[in-house]
Amino acid sequence: MLELIKELSAVPGISGRENKVCEFITEQIKDYAEYRIDPLGNLIVFRKGKKPSNHKVMIDAHMDEVGFIISDITSDGFLHFVKVGGINTAVLAGRRVKVGEKEVNGVFGIKPIHLVDRENETKLPSDDDLYIDIGASSRDEALKYVQPGDSAWFSSETVEFGDGFLKAKALDDRAGCAILIKMIQNEPEYDLWFSFSVQEETGLKGAKTATFTIDPEYAIAVETTTAADISGVKDDKRVCILGNGGAVSFMDRSTIYNKELFDRAFEIAREKNIPCQTKMMVAGGNNAGAIHQSRGGVKTLAVSVPCRYLHSPACVIKYKDVESSYELISALAEDLAK
Amino acid sequence: MSEYQNVSLLLKALCAANGTSGDEAEAAEIAAGMLKKYMDVEISPLGSVIGRLDGNGIHILLDAHIDQIGLVVTAIDETGFLKVAKCGGSDARVLAASDVTVHGKKDVFGVVTSTPPHLASKDDEGKAKGFDDVSIDIGLSRENAEKIVEPGDRITFNSSFDELLGNRVASACIDDRAGVAAILRALELLEGKTGNAKITVMFSSQEETGGSGALTGAFSAQADEAIAVDVSFASAPNISSEKYASLGMGTMIGYSPSLDFEMSKSLKRLAEENEIQYQNEVMGGRTGTNCDEIQISGRGCKTALLSIPIRNMHTAVELCDLSDIEETAKLIAAYITERSGTNA
Q: Once rounded to an integer, what is the mean pLDDT over residues A181-205?
């Protein structure tokens, strides 16, 4: 799965422009399952198991990543942009991007620190002051390569480092996509439904329609979630810890999770000796917010790979958390479907 | 890009080397290797690359600094994260979630920590964390980290060498590898025709931390005249093109009370005579470059400054136009040609 995650995270696919990610995943699963692409671009997959299921279970991961859309080009060739998804301005200045169909190189420029007053040395530029510089000298030169409306996304090297860590862009939620792909490639015990969803980062749009279409009884959202297990952060603020397994949520800003599923996940983890942890903070949200409200209601759980520096060009996960999340989700899906 | 291929190849190779202030050995070795094509080379007691070409005429010193800004490890905390201080004028606003290399017993990849939104207070809004409040995540326990990293190890900001539109490129440490590239390119353009001039080339250490390399190197050289090549500010959004230079509009000829006025005027005249693109950089006193040290070293030295305009100085995306490096090289070559009498 590690190679798969590395390849998946490198594919560009900001919210609403997930087609390349969808094509990549389709290649991976087409020999194993029935699939179709719905009007919004969700990849909906039915994987026949060894046995028919008694309960319809859907597993969801989102294909989109945070990024940018070019909004305007100045007369001297600089690009204005809007953010797509929740990106902290602190991770923009000095970073690299790829822009448009031609994937030209760009950088987020910043006024040199030498020209900034002492009292403003740590003041971040506002979103309005930030711009992308592709080296164009004029609007006309820029327009040969980039049009307003084009996507831009973080350009970031994929690196394995330390004791089993991986750093890349878009691990949110390509790590989840990789788990689903592997579940499809390994024949499950019972029939399962999968949704590779679009537009999670801009309001859970894809999951809403995909869940309507699939109409499941149970659902598991497979995500990444923020881990604040970094230097100087106290225990109760760390949310979850890299290396301790998938983080299972009881509640976040969009969902109160089904207690029966929450308890079942921990029982299975204990029975099978799979590491997992509780997400220790009511924060964030994910596709479960749309999934559990679908039609007459869906019993839903979220299992997330802990991820440091979420929504930045340098997302960091620990690979063994992906493996233990995969084991937990596979076992839980089988248990729910039987 | 092909028009500036020589400069591009020089700059790319130079930018790939590590050389944080006080730890310039790797970059110095790469630059020394390039300089050896033209003259004998040695490393000074403070780590500068010094090349000498003998002659019985005027002695000209060419300087560009080889060091780059970065960070230095101050401690390893109980969770294995590294605490840091800045080494040179690093910029706190570009730290969060950036890729770095820790130059320990071996090179180790790391990420500068970035605080998740749920930990941000109202006071933090719109503010970057200072150097005391970030740390480096190298994915190791304290025990394993201590085997490779120790306080004093330098940290560089990772960067690819990205070709942008036109002749523009973005990389870390264009400041001042662009200056080093300009001097090497000037020597290439001269094709050994330096007449009776005595030339000293200095790729000086520790400019970003106060200019110790240039101060001591210029003392040892005791040249008659010096030209320092550094980078300066180019206009961009919120940086006025009236006040600052423009990218791609040529080398910047410096004027300042501490720069020799006759040298500045000669450079301007030579630029015009040889159709070399130039722009002016006028400073009221200190230049903020090695010129400030070279001018007052030993008995003193007449000094001129040529600057290459760049954007985003002291970030991992310093951006320059290769044509400006080429024009700088041409002007250095023209100056040496005239002063050595080879064009007489």
A: 97
Query: B51 burial class (0-12, 13-18, 19+ CB within 10 angstroms)?
Result: buried
- The pLDDT of residue B344: 42
Which domain-ending residue is among B106, B131, B157? B157
Could you give the CA distance from residue B154 to residue B164 in angstroms, rounded to a whole number?
29
Q: Does pLDDT of A211 surpass 80?
A: yes
The answer to whether A157 is a known catalytic residue is: no
Angle between helices B174-190 and B322-339 (to 10 degrees): 50
- Per-residue DSSP letters for A233-254? --GGG--S-TTS-EEEPSB-SS
Global ipTM: 0.95
The count of structural domains within chain A is 2
Q: Which residue range forms the structural domain that includes residue B293?
A: 2-68+172-339
Instruction: Report the 3 state secondary structure along A49-72.
Output: CCECCCCCEEEEEECCECEEEEEE
Q: Which residues of B touch A97 (CB under 8 A)?
A: none
* Pair (A19, A137) in one structural domain: no
Q: Which residue of B has its CA nearest to A319?
A: B139
Q: Do B160 and A167 touch (CB under 8 A)?
A: no
What's the whole-model pTM score?
0.95
Torsion over CA: A179, A184, A187, A191 (sign): positive
